[in-house]
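Need tokens for this chain, all 224 residues.
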Amino acid sequence: MTSAHILIVEDEENLAKIMRDYLSREELQTHVITDGNDVVAYVREHKPDVILLDIMLPNKDGSTICKEIRQFSNTPIIMTTARIDEIDRIIGLEIGADDYVCKPYSPRELVARVKVQLRKRSQPNSEEGKDLKLNDDFLTASLSSKSIELTFVEYNLLKKLHASKGRIYNRDQLIDSIYTDGRIVSDRTIDSHIKKIRKKLKTLNPKQEYIHSIYGCGYKFEAK
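Here are the structure tokens for all 224 residues:
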């Protein structure tokens, strides 16, 4: 963990300093940003290992920033906020946050949550489904020694289905999950992505069907 890079997005100077000090004690590298407008460009360029993201920020709020980051990165995001309503926590998770901490919080708890996210990244970053493995860092799916590259949207669509094996998702649910910026996307767009994913997966195992169409409902992931 000594080389892990933690981005702190917090406009309260004293709180940002406390967060930085506690993380530095764990030999974690930190960088503080106070302006919402500066976050996305920094993440693109420096690729931090974990992002601590406040919701209430100058110029651009944390929820918007989270949505924008999720368009190009799966970096763990822990949202920090004074909002304590359950609906706010749910919304934070639905837009792509990995964890949610309400102020006032214990700095030690925050460090512990950061370590949890770092452990997840340090472990073999894969998920299994009948030997199918997904790699968040490289946006790939692999089987034995074979590997395929996916686009960001294709990867997240496959990961969404794969995360709840056997669960049926309708097209609207998949659209809302993959396209978090509010753009209008047709059902045919999802169908097109599914078709491309299936074609790529066939190069890994021509005999195995991973994504199944459920007539009148949508799609599910099931290796059988």
